[in-house]
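[User]
Protein folding is very new to me. Any chance you could explain this protein sequence and its structure tokens? I have pasted everything here:
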Amino acid sequence: MIPRVIHQTWKDRNVPARFLDAQRSWQEVHPDWEYRFWTDEDLDALVRERAPELLPLYERYPEAIQRVDAARYVILREFGGVYADLDLMCLRPIDSLLNHEMVLPRTTPFGVSNQFMLAVKGHSLLCHAIASLPRAYAKWGRVWPRHLRVLTTAGPLFLTGRLREHGVTDGMRILSLDEHGHGDREVAYVAHLRGNTWAAWDTHVINFFHDHWKWLVAGGAVSAVLLRTLGLI
């Protein structure tokens, strides 16, 4: 059974005001659960003490978000429980998910996310993911743009790849997009705030195209028809 402990992280104890309501929501919805808050300093100590095999790569990562992504897998491997990003608002109790061994959410445009994960201590997918981090960095560590490099070295695309290698085994549960807050709020466990705390210019460009691609395609089609009508193409 997944332990009743909630893990969240931030670089220090000064959580930005825009995330405080979301942070409180996890404790208010689960008042009897243990709540553990991890700073970057805490994560550094965790990796040194509990995952020394990962330390050389952990210290080599050029981006803080890569270290945070890697450390969240270590947290769940070592302690089990629930990991949730600070930009996730908890909408309803997640006790019904605790009978599984591992729970991951589907995300858009494909794959699974590492922003909301539930697991028993020592789950085999987490062990596989942590062992695969050096391989992923060797393959994707120099990829451009930065956004893709972050996603593939330790982020959601990395986890999606490890899930495909590991497989969805007995005891695992993949949440639907609706349950993950991308659709019907009536069945959602979480709601998403605008986070992107690690984002640079390339992330904002990619998100713009992701959010507006339908309008961009429609606009391009209308423009092509107009130009053709005017004999300009």
User: Anything to note?
Assistant: Residues 5-199 form a domain with the Spore Coat Polysaccharide Biosynthesis Protein SpsA; Chain A fold (CATH 3.90.550.20).
